[in-house]
Amino acid sequence: MGFFSFFLWFILLLSLLLPDVFLVHAFTGTYGINYGRIADNIPPPESVVTLLKAAKIKNIRIYDADHGVLRAFKGSGIEIIVGLGNEYLRDISVNEDRAVQWVKENVEPFLPGTLITGIAVGNEILGGADTELWEVLVPAVKNVYNALDQLRLANRIEVSSPHSEAVFATTFPPSAGAFKESILPYMRPLLQFFSQIGTPFYINAYPFLAYMSDPAHIDLNYALFLPNPGIYDAKTKLHYDNMFEAQIDAAYAALEKVGFDKMEVIVSETGWASKGDENEAGAILKNARTYNRNLRKKLLKKKGTPYRPRTVVKAYIFALFNENLKPGPTSERNFGLFKADGSTAYDIGFTGLVPSSASSFLGSIKGNGHDWYRVISGQADHL
């Protein structure tokens, strides 16, 4: 057998033995968005499809596997990561048949028309208040993966689990990034499994939250991608002019310290609130517009971070809409790039949905039996 023939045979064998690592890519662009729906006044999913197409956004995350949403996205070409809620983890962690049932009910019937490319198992589990969930996360993740494998979907759908910044003991300077000792007994086996199946490390990174927690010592311009002195990391001899990239590189440093230096970091949530309570520093429309506009420009450049310049940064923005029923402080209800009626919350270059009496349209949208929304004509960059 010649070398070339042997090489082809070897690649084919690897693709058969390790289909997940070679074929699964839940996020193929650089700019995605989180489509949360804790609201009673947002556009129907059919209109959301048109909104996303007009904005040329091709990657989204949802926090459940709502059948109405998944049906609406059929044939759209938009790639979706669905969510398996925290409330399911205990049951699924001890019952692989339950995991198979969940996938059969909430994923398999919508393929291949709806491009479900990933399942996020839980959200911000490690470091959260419910420590019982820490113990069931890895078994739940493995059972979901095994269910996909049993249904011959493991080579098409990625299994992941996004984390909050609460998993880190330190993130400053970026090279000092390290996981909390208390979560390592749960994080290590999770990373080991994700490394085996080719899943990236998903992190919810919010410069807004960091600034809000310490506005006296954090330069607002550093958080907003505006001109500022930045910070210097003496260990790596790298300069950072924005907090977003520093947070990503702190995650890479933490992963290196536990032996997973090859794992990619993807930002599963980031955003800035356009309104907040009096004690929520920086939560104003001007800052939200500045952060999201500058972040979008940065992601469009398809560049890496100072520490990982060859690994293109990818991020899902939080969130598509202001969600009027979300509990908590005012900021929680004001992260949307779009208002409840589908119009833009502020201008960062996207088109929006407006009431059908407006004068300039691309066309009408049917949603829930009503001709509710039309799309303002405009342009958007490919993302």
From TrEMBL:
Its EC number is 3.2.1.39. This is glucan endo-1,3-beta-D-glucosidase. The keyword Hydrolase applies. GO terms for biological process: carbohydrate metabolic process. It catalyses: Hydrolysis of (1->3)-beta-D-glucosidic linkages in (1->3)-beta-D-glucans. Gene3D superfamilies: Glycosidases. Belongs to the glycosyl hydrolase 17 family. Keywords: Glycosidase, Hydrolase, Signal. It holds the Pfam family Glyco_hydro_17. Residues 1-26 form the signal peptide. InterPro entries: GH (IPR017853), Glyco_hydro_17 (IPR000490), Glyco_hydro_17_plant (IPR044965). GO terms for molecular function: glucan endo-1,3-beta-D-glucosidase activity.
